[in-house]
Specification:
mainly alpha, Four Helix Bundle (Hemerythrin (Met), subunit A), 9 helices, 2 strands
Length: 221
Amino acid sequence: MLRIYLYFLCLTVLAPGVAPVAYPQETSAEKAAVRAVAPTSGFRAEFLEELAYYEKRYTSLAEAMPAEKYTWRPGEGVRSAGEVFTHIVGANYGVARALGTAPPAGLDFKSIMALSPDKPKVIQALKDSFAHFRNAIIALKEEDADKPQKMFNRQTTLRGSFIAITGHFGEHLGQSIAYARVNGVVPPWTEGLINRSRNRLRNPNPKPRQQTAHRYFIGRR
């Protein structure tokens, strides 16, 4: 955990081109171009599925968290709820750069953390950073899957770096879920499961479905 923190701290401090923070919006043409070139098989396509999974959960949890809880933290010296989200924003841009895609022009890494108390800006920053990261993955080449790649101060392959990135996503998603639960927020994607469980408790002995076709064939024997 300390290694990962120091890694992203270095990315933040050493980021070139410091200017007022800005998150350029993708145009419709750019989005269409991304859809056109997105792989449907191979290691990139597999990771893009993971990326979509985590993007949906981070953004929906950020939307569900009340604005006044963005500054909540479990203890002194620990990231606040908003700071966990902005940490993911910075990581998305930092990892994309490590994979060969430069950050958007004018992006200021030092200002990303300053967004943490502002819910609307954090949500937009999350969406923009995931879009940028997705483009960085699409820009990679399938034949480079086994190419040496350094990620989180560890030497691995390009394919192997995806495992490390997924682990980082999972670690901080778990952290964000814990923050949400402590503050009485139910992760949106679990609401359907909770409702189904409640329905089963209310109706523990549902009537079995009629096997009409089965009875028909039995009667004709």
